[in-house]
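Record pair follows.
FIRST:
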Amino acid sequence: MSWELWAAGLGGGAGAALRHLVDGAVRRMVSDRLPWGTLTVNTAGTLLLGLVFGVASATAVPPQAWALVAVGLCGALTTYSTFSHEVLALARNGRPLTAAAYAAATECCALGALGAGVLLARALPL
């Protein structure tokens, strides 16, 4: 088994645990009318992925580090399946406009965070 596979698995475990902790904390702090926890982890995960991608484009990142952080941690921290389920649940519960707004906000936040992460990484003295 390759070291990259082990690194991705280790990062994935950490990302899943972090997602669970952050989602729970956000849910306790704000209203549950919208899935703010999922929006938070997806935005944070894509910001981190942008940082990693920005660093990787400026320096040599070992494949094990990429597997650990980008594939494992960011992959498990972000959650497209939960996001999709929540959009569908909002729509099925008679809130189609809220579902559409949540979907659009998630995509905008994720893409914006990814771009911000890349820009932040480029600003670092590497």
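SECOND:
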Amino acid sequence: MPANDLEPIPVQERTIALVGLMGVGKTTVGRRLARRLGLPFADGDVEIEAAAAMTVSDIFARYGESEFRAGEARVMRRLLEGPRKVVATGGGAMLNPETRALMKARAVTVWMRADLSIVAQRVQRRDTRPLLRGRDPLEALGQLAEARYPVYAGADLVVDVTGGAHAEAVEAIMRALEAHGVLESRP
């Protein structure tokens, strides 16, 4: 069923989809947020790797980015059509128009935004990111931000996660979800 044929579901029943550039902490914060909310957690990249039986880097190397994106769209559809959960999306997942439409109908999207210099420091720790391989991380992230920020700006919520620990990011997201009516207000 095409994403535009889906009936939107009430905001309190929607999956919470974390979006943003690689290195902003979607996976770590997502796990903690899911525990806090008592919801299952899914990492889009882990799910893609499981479906393909190979790593994201291997998918890029063997089949290219376009095939990776096609697989990512299939996995995101499965995750978003399933029961409510917290999902850490891949940095490019929201670029797919069908995935974006599905997110609009089935998820509350939270753009985890952080200062690019901080993100560049984080992503340098691992050499597993195909879009950064052989490139200056800050320059590459700047180019990705230029292309992706206008799309991320369509998220339901924007939370700055630049400074502080993951626990602070979880708290900031919890406050944003409460303000958006996704969660009941805490005492």
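COMMENT: The chain has one domain: 3-179.
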